[in-house]
UniProtKB/TrEMBL annotation:
Keywords: Hydrolase
SUPFAM superfamilies for this protein: Thioesterase/thiol ester dehydrase-isomerase
Pfam families on file: 4HBT (PF03061)
Protein's recorded name: Thioesterase domain-containing protein
Length: 146
């Protein structure tokens, strides 16, 4: 599929297409090792495995890793509602951290779901759980529809 064809895809179609590629384009998700586990209208699930590179000065996973994971799943959940050629950007992100995470190959799973998608503004919520199912962080976002 060429670039011109991609412009005709809805947000949901574009996300599904991108995740089906053998060699996806460079992105923050690729850099951090994030994987798309589920993509449905209004709901996206992604996961990653922690590693020592994610460490903060205290030796646990830096909060920015969870924030990035949450921003990604919530933004992508909003994107699944958008028509071809319509974009979005994060206006506000609020994250609550619940527990520390080790850097030694802990699987984090994030789920983002839309709350409201209007013509100009969308809101969503997200949660990150560790491999034991414990809540690690939760968040809300407001996105501007472009």
């Amino acid at each position: 599929m060429n670039d011109q064809d991609l412009s005709t895809l809805s947000g949901l179609e574009l996300l599904r297409h991108t995740t089906s590629l053998d060699d996806p384009p460079p992105s923050i998700g690729r850099l951090l090792g994030m994987r798309f586990d589920e993509i449905d209208e209004g709901r996206v699930v992604m996961s990653l495995d922690t590693r020592p590179d994610f460490s903060n000065p205290l030796g646990t996973v830096h909060g920015g890793i969870c924030a990035t994971l949450l921003d990604s799943v919530m933004g992508c959940a909003v994107h699944t509602h958008l028509a071809a050629g319509v974009g979005y950007t994060t206006l506000e992100l609020k994250v609550n951290y619940i527990r520390a995470v080790a850097t030694d190959d802990v699987t984090l799973v994030a789920t983002g779901t839309t709350i409201h998608v209007g013509r100009r503004v969308a809101t969503a919520e997200g949660k990150v759980h560790n491999q034991e199912g414990q809540l690690v962080a939760h968040a809300t976002t407001t996105c501007l529809i472009l």
